[in-house]
Amino acid sequence: MERSANFLFGGTNFNRKKFAPDFAKFKNRKEDDDEDHNKKVSFFEQEEEEEEPEQEKLVSSSSSKKRKRKSANSEPVEGFDVFKSSKKSRSKGKEVEQDTKDETLENPKKELYRRMEQDSLSRKQYNIHVSGENVPPPLKSFTELSSRYGCKKYILRNLAELGFKEPTPIQRQAIPILLSGRECFACAPTGSGKTFAFICPMLIKLKRHSTDGIRAVILSPARELAAQTAREGKKLIKGSKFNIRLMTKPLVKTADFSKLQCDVLISTPMRLKRAIKAKKIDLSKVEYLVLDESDKLFEQSMLKQIDGVVKACSNPSIIRSLFSATLPDSVEELARSIMHDAVRVIIGRKNTASETVKQKLVFAGTEEGKLLALRQSFAQSLNPPVLIFLQSKERAKQLYDELKCEDIRVGVIHSDLPPGERENAVDSFRAGETWVLIATDVIARGMDFKGINCVINYDFPDSASAYIHRIGRSGRAGRSGEAITFYTEEDVPFLRNIANTMTSSGCEVPSWILTLKKKKWKKHRPKRDSISTRPKDSKIEQEE
Ligand SMILES: Nc1ncnc2c1ncn2[C@@H]1O[C@H](COP(=O)(O)OP(=O)(O)OP(=O)(O)O)[C@@H](O)[C@H]1O
């Protein structure tokens, strides 16, 4: 573990082997040139190691002429908006290119530095932070996929049909990494386009449909997310012969996997592990394995299944990648222990909430107070679609029972419902047939409902990562959203933890909350009074 941690974070030692052709170009140069070169390389080593961008360091190692120009080009990225395709950033890119042209190109060594410097500036521009050796440059545009990597036309056509004009920051960096055959673990905000960041390179690398067994596996922690990923993937393979399959219960039961036409299989760990255990499926030819929402997959409850899948994918040249909006250190440790020559990519700051969501804390006092506050807010302005999170299926059912008789089109989803009903709940919400969806954390991760206006944490989330994922169902793909978190007396000790997440994504928090002591929390799910505003007497009557 120690050793792998060192190799991954040991900084970007310049790999002379890999850059042999570049070195060959100037191998006859004088000794002092080499010294000069070493100095400049170490400057890039530093830059690549940094998690927080430090423009000063970049600037200090250049000439004063360059210093001026760079400082003009490298102002801090204000806020983080993944879909910000601002003219400002584009024109910045042009200035950098112009600089490059202006500079003399006579010295290939300088050209190499310039390319590296450009990559650094481009990363700075998109708030991309990388660690690892010889990280490929970020994409400038989707069209570079064909010029640099021979991507088939149908993929570019499908991206254009989806209305994607330019790659998001995670796509800019993760796609070239995976295309260059490197493993990768990536942390980027909710709603920032991670799904296509791993599906795109997979399809480009697999090139064409093959009948030689399953070639790629994507693991998702929940059925709904697996189904969504399959649907998104299918949008990208339109016009090709690729087969993307979702691992469903009937498929596990009935399919003969040795004959099944399947290039990419998308599954929850449980379903796949069952198929492996029943010796129904051969994953030895899998070339790509993606662990989506990897921190969830690495939780104790799923770890055994994940282990089984990772072992079954026994192809020694497999490329594994991990994606999530939250990446705890413990998961990084685990990732490092299973990955080789991996690149770590962080967009913005690790483990922060989306900046496009306006977040608010509301003191509701008691359980009864929460229901009153909810009704009041619906009466004042119900701006659907609204997603409400509760801490357990029992409580989700209770709130649903309370609201279903009212004039609100409400649905519910939790793990007790049969798969068909879960699917219907999601579909009706997507179609706008229900306005309010009451849910447990089963759909807190990864689900991409277009245009959710408001997420209500009816029950206080049990961890900072649960908070980040829940509220991340809103404010996706550059849209704005709102998140309201109710709290009662019981939740006060944990307020500070959420408050920190709120402030680091630019939201205001009452100052008294910031003076509270930080409390270590492990799954804060207090026993709460049941949800009901019916007078206590009438409840007794009914029970009798
Ligand atoms: N390059 C792009 N340009 C515009 N929209 C995009 C682009 N890439 C993805 N999207 C859209 O952004 C939305 C969010 O993408 P996605 O679901 O992949 O986010 P995510 O980062 O996986 O979020 P989460 O962490 O919640 O799982 C989707 O609706 C997707 O279609």
Describe this structure in words.
With 544 residues, the chain is of the alpha/beta class. The protein is built from 24 helices and 14 strands. An eight-stranded mixed sheet has the order 1-8-2-7-6-3-5-4. 42% of the residues are buried. The model is unreliable at 1-93 and 539-544 (pLDDT under 50). The structure holds adenosine-5'-triphosphate. Adenosine-5'-triphosphate (ATP) binds at residues 83, 164, 167-168, 171, 188, 190-196, 325, 446, 448, 472, 476-477.
Number of domains: 2
Envelope shape: globular
Instruction: Using the 3D structure, state the CATH architecture of the largest domain.
Output: 3-Layer(aba) Sandwich
Strand content: 5-15%
Major β-sheet profile: 8 strands, mixed
User: What structural category do the secondary elements indicate?
Assistant: alpha/beta
Uncertain runs are 1-93, 539-544
CATH domain fold name of the largest domain: Rossmann fold
Q: State the helical fraction.
A: 40-55%
User: What ligands does this structure carry?
Assistant: adenosine-5'-triphosphate
Can you identify the CATH superfamily of the largest domain?
A: P-loop containing nucleotide triphosphate hydrolases
**Can you give the mean pLDDT?**
81
Please write the CATH class name of the largest domain: Alpha Beta
| Radius of gyration using CA atoms only | 25 Å
Specify the number of helices.
Answer: 24
Give the number of DSSP strands: 14
Termini Cα gap: 61 Å
Q: Order of strands across the widest beta sheet?
A: 1-8-2-7-6-3-5-4
